[in-house]
């Protein structure tokens, strides 16, 4: 049997697997092997709610497919031996492959800031998010939570935590002049106004020099807090960082037309690990996973793959359970409608993959 080894059962990896299994176009001698550290996909776009305590982890899980052509191996990827076509797990187990899909996702980028990793909380994995929930839940009434990073994750984290813990003092600290700096100013103003109405402090122009147990330092200024949540950037996971291959400024692997590594055409790179012409997102990873499935099916038929450019539908964000914002093409949407749309997208995703 030939092995298609898929590293990571997130949005990209699961979309790839689902597409291949749904179409039932696997060659008779190909087996799919999925490697993941968990027995389910975690819906990462909802981890902020898990951390805030407004949902439980069972509601942010999608079970992996059950299929006779799919084998699941549970474990943490330690390293990838591209010349030897092997993947080593932390358990010491080695997995051989004929074709490989790297869809391991991302981890926090601490930008070399001293103390950031040691003294802040993360929402980049299920285990880390559970620990973040524990620490936030244990903050005493009227304690202070500082969220570093005013992008989509930081904004959703702050808003959800406000609904969960109205007693807390919550602040978003960002290096830019406004939250959601990658979005139109109109959306930023709407979100800033929502935060003002709900007593969430937003501070721009913060350049974190180092982090200690009970404080973030903006140069010499100590910004005290009981818990620090880090949402200030992402990077590919360590196993991808260790690969001595061409990468972009964000550490993502440079790929060719069909998402293959130029020197290793049997290796495909998906999602947050791949250098793509748009920002990393669940939507982009899922679309790319489906396209890699099309590429593989064409190559198995000895045909030239034909792909259409990925067209993303937009971005949606939540401000608690009753308000939201979004960017649909060039159109900004705010209020109740984008929140309902996001809930609908989540329901459809769980229904499709589950």
Spell out the key features of this protein.
354 residues, alpha/beta, six-stranded mixed beta sheet, four-stranded parallel beta sheet, 29% helix, globular
Distance linking N and C termini:
28 Å
In round numbers, the mean pLDDT is 94
| Physical arrangement of strands within the biggest beta sheet | 5-2-1-9-20-19
The geometry reads as: globular
Helix share, percent: 25-40%
User: Rounded to an integer, what's the Rg over CA atoms?
Assistant: 21 Å
Number of strands: 23
Beta strand %: 25-35%
Per-chain topology:
Elements: E1 2-7, H1 11-23, E2 30-36, E3 40-42, H2 47-52, E4 61-63, E5 70-74, E6 77-81, E7 86-89, E8 94-96, E9 99-102, E10 106-108, H3 116-119, H4 126-137, E11 144-148, H5 152-164, E12 169-173, H6 185-197, E13 200-203, E14 208-212, E15 215-218, E16 221-224, E17 227-230, E18 234-236, H7 238-241, E19 260-261, E20 264-269, H8 282-300, E21 315-319, E22 323-328, E23 331-335, H9 336-353
Parallel strand pairs: 1-2, 1-9, 2-5, 9-20, 11-12, 11-17, 12-13
Antiparallel strand pairs: 3-4, 6-7, 7-8, 10-18, 14-15, 15-16, 19-20, 21-22, 22-23
Explain what this protein looks like in three dimensions.
It is a single chain. The protein has helices at 11-23, 47-52, 116-119, 126-137, 152-164, 185-197, 238-241, 282-300, 336-353; strands spanning 2-7, 30-36, 40-42, 61-63, 70-74, 77-81, 86-89, 94-96, 99-102, 106-108, 144-148, 169-173, 200-203, 208-212, 215-218, 221-224, 227-230, 234-236, 260-261, 264-269, 315-319, 323-328, 331-335. The mean pLDDT is 94. The chain is globular, with a radius of gyration of 21 Å. It has nine helices and 23 strands. A hairpin with a 2-residue loop joins strand 14 and strand 15. Helix 1 (11-23) runs parallel beside helix 8. With 354 residues, it is an alpha/beta fold.
């Amino acid at each position: 049997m030939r092995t298609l080894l898929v590293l990571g059962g997130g949005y990209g990896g699961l979309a790839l697997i689902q597409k291949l299994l749904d179409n039932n176009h696997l060659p008779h001698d190909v087996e799919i092997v999925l490697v993941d550290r968990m027995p389910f996909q975690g819906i990462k776009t909802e981890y902020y709610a898990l951390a805030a305590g407004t949902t439980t982890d069972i509601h942010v899980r999608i079970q992996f497919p059950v299929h006779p052509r799919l084998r699941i191996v549970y474990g943490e990827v330690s390293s990838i031996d591209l010349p030897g076509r092997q993947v080593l797990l932390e358990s010491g187990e080695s997995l051989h492959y004929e074709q490989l899909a790297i869809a391991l996702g991302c981890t926090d980028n601490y930008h070399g800031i001293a103390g950031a990793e040691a003294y802040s909380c993360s929402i980049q994995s299920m285990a880390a998010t559970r620990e973040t929930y524990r620490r936030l839940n244990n903050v005493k009434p009227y304690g202070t939570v500082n969220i570093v990073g005013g992008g989509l994750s930081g904004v959703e984290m702050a808003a959800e935590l406000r609904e969960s813990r109205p007693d807390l003092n919550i602040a978003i600290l960002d290096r830019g002049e406004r939250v959601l700096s990658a979005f139109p100013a109109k959306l930023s103003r709407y979100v800033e106004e929502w935060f003002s109405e709900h007593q969430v402090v937003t501070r721009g122009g913060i350049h974190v020099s180092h982090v200690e147990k009970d404080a973030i330092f903006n140069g010499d200024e100590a910004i005290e807090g009981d818990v620090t949540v880090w949402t200030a950037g992402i990077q590919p996971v360590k196993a991808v960082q260790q690969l001595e291959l061409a990468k972009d400024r964000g550490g993502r692997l440079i790929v060719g037309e069909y998402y293959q590594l130029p020197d290793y055409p049997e290796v495909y790179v998906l999602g947050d690990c791949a250098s793509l012409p748009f920002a990393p997102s669940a939507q982009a990873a899922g679309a790319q996973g489906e396209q890699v499935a099309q590429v593989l099916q064409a190559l198995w038929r000895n045909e030239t793959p034909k792909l259409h450019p990925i067209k993303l539908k937009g971005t949606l964000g939540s401000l608690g359970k009753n308000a939201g914002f979004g960017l649909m093409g060039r159109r900004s949407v705010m209020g109740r409608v984008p929140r309902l749309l996001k809930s609908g997208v989540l329901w459809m995703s769980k229904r499709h993959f589950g």
